[in-house]
Structure formats: C-alpha cells, structure tokens
Amino acid sequence: MKEFDIKTKIYFGQDSLDRLKAMPYQRVMIIADPFVVSSGMVQHAVRRLQAAGKTYSIYSDVVPDPPIEKVVAGIGAALQFRPEVIVAIGGGSAIDLSKSVRKFARNVDPTFSARLIAVPTTSGTGSEVTCFAVITDPEKNVKYPLTSDDLVPDEAILDEVLVKSVPASVTADTGMDVMTHALEAYVSIQNNEFSGAFAEKAVEICGQFLLRSQADNNDTHARRKMHVASCLAGLAFNASSLGLNHGMAHQLGAVFHIPHGRANSILLPHIIEYNSEINLYSRSKSSYAPCVQKYCNMARILGVNNLNEVVTVHALINQVRFMATEMHMPTSVSEALPKLTKEEYEAQISLMAKNALQDGCTATNPRIPTEDDVIELYKKIW
Asked: Cα 151 vs. chain centroid, distance in angstroms?
C-alpha cells in the first residue's frame, strides 16, 4: 500500500504575506538569513506582525549549510523565547535550520509546541513543503540529510515580492536545483502517479520561465511561476525522494563549498547519461532501463523529444546543458572553482564517493551505483 499526503498548507500569489497578520499566533520567532535582515527584506514580515499587534523576536545567526553548533544555538534561543510559531524567512539554510530547531527543541522539552511557517526567499530548495533538512558537521566535512515528518512545516507562504531582488546567479543556481529535484523525483524508485504529476508540472514551468526569470529581475510573472515550480518539485521529492545527483552534490558542497544548485547543475547531464545507460556511442535497442521512458517524457514536456529513445535522451541532456550555459553557469568543477587544482580535487574523490553512497538520497536512485561508478562520475565532472 502506498500513501500520498500534503501536510503543509500553502499560501501563494499576490499579498500572500498577509497570512502573517491573519494567523492566530501572537508570539512569533523569526529565523532569517542575515541578508534578509540587513537588506530590509524582513520588514515585509515585521510590518504585518506589528500591524496585528504581535510580539516577535528576530534570530539571524544563520549560515549556509547550517552546522550542528548553529542548530544547538538556535534551540537555546527558541527555548528561551518560547514562541507560539517559528517563521523561517530565507533560502534553504534558514528553513533547514528552523526545521531542525523546532524538531530538536521538542525533543529537549516535550512542552515546546511551536508551529512552523516557512517563507522562502529563493525559488529552488522546495524545503518549505518537505520532510528533509540538511545540516553539516564541519569537522568531518560531511552533510547529513535529516528525514522526519516532524520537519515538515505547517504552512508555507510563497510571495514573489521576496524573490524580486535575488541576483541572477542565485536565480540560475536555484532554478537548476528545481530542475534536478523534479527530474530525480520523477525517476526515483519511489516515484508514483501523484509525485510524478508534480514533477512534470515543475519541469514544464522551468522550461517556460526559468531563463526569463534569470534574465530579468522585473519579470514578476516569471518569478512567481518559478516560486510555484520550486514548491511543486518539493512536493514531488517529498513523496518520492531523490537520487545519486543529490547524493554526490551534497559532498561537493560539504568539501568544496560549491553552492548546492550549482553542484546539481554540473552533475545533472552526467547523471541522466549514467542512469539511462545511454551515451554518445549508444545505438537503438529493443529494451531500455525503466527510467529511459520517463526521461523521454520530460524531453517531450520541454519540447525536445525526437526520433527514438536514444536521440531523445541526448536531446534532454543537451537541453539541460543549454539552460545552464545560457545562464552563464559553470559546467564543470574546474570552471566553478578555477583556483582549485586537479590534484587537490582528485585527492578528495574517494572519500566523497564513499559518503555519496551512504547519503540517504542515493538509496532511491533508479540505477544502483558502485563506488567505482561514483568515482568515475566525479572524475568526469572535473
């Protein structure tokens, strides 16, 4: 028996931040990225809380890939302030920190009952609707994906006003993260009809609006669409999980601090080729890996389907590469980190491969990878 459940109530569209005025909670702890505070973006929320006469505090000790000690510090702040609701405002790191703080604060003090509202300021992670969070152990250079229903936010607010000022490079990174979420969820061994429908719609929106949203900050319609696509992809992978692409990207982020969406984008063409077992030298055959038809479906949605499965999978790979290069994204590790030497990179490959295989995302990949497979893929992306 399978199950599909959407636990998060989603508010979206113009003025959806007004939910902060209407919500029934009076004591509010905002956890926000430092940039969200320093740029004044947090005032979009603060003004609404003040108008409703709510008591609030702002906690901004948030860093990318939140390390364990930041989670511990956030738990201390939450237990001291005792909010009725935590409002996470920011990218994936702020939301992941907020999820972890709420969950582990409950473990420390069972009377802690704060609700969680996620307000994403980037269109990429989908974290506002998922049961996943990622925290980092900086001493071991390892990212730990956490999975628990207790991590799922109670509400999500998708207001495009918060993504209008996002730099083009961040829009590109997060947009390709959406593509990767959708494609991996679609071919996951846990994929089902419901998650598949969300993934298909997310890819359709990316195909139409990602390049537009990256090229023009003032294209509010495109930004609104990508905000929704990010959430749809999050709903897809929350139900079906992800795959090797994310398992490997987590290690690139932990060891070399490559932004997550950028790492996913570099890997994605190679992972499609690996999973499908179709490369430049492949010829048509009578049967293919089960994920091939799904990749062909996505190619059709993007308008690049072709004569047969081999040509269509090639077309999908080329379209992914085109979208990345059109947005001036690096397509290799050496391009992303020009100061890194090949020797320094290759010295970390063996450990990264081992950790990628242990990553929870890798378990649902459509093709079971070996350590040698992962090592070879890491070498290919140099």
From this structure: 15
